[in-house]
Amino acid sequence: LLSFESKASALEFYHTIVRLTNNTGIHTPKDCYESLLCMMREWHFLKQIKRSGQGHHPGTIAAMQPGACAVMCPACPHPGKNLPVIGQVLRLSQSEF
Fold first, then answer.
1. Of 37, 63, 81, 87, which cross-links 59 as Cys (Cβ 3.0–4.6 Å)?
2. Source organism's superkingdom (predicted)?
3. Which residue, among 73, 65, 2, has the nearest Cα to 39 in the 3D structure?
4. Neighbouring residues of 32: CB distance < 8 A, sequence distance ≥ 6
5. At 45, which helix (H) or strand (E)?
6. What's residue 36's pLDDT?
7. Is the pTM of this model over 0.70?
8. Cβ pair 3, 13 in contact under 8 A
9. Burial class (CB in 10 A: 0-12, 13-18, 19+), 51
10. Rounded to whole angstroms, how far apart are CA atoms 32 and 40?
């Protein structure tokens, strides 16, 4: 969330937390940058699952089908939704003549 609001990278955020923890540089905390990145990836994935409506899926996350989180593009043609079926197109074109 902070990366979207402050436009700060994860590395800048991590170094800021390290400086706030101990600014003298004598006793630096152990490096947890990789853990921070892993946590950020997990958070983004959970937000994606929630936004796609799969958060309360009866199965586990591992049981989800590939593409389950994909959002259908309303501008792209989908037969039967925003594009007539081929048979309907043929009937319409024949009735015009």
1. 63
2. Eukaryota
3. 2
4. 14
5. helix 33-51
6. 92
7. no
8. yes
9. exposed
10. 12
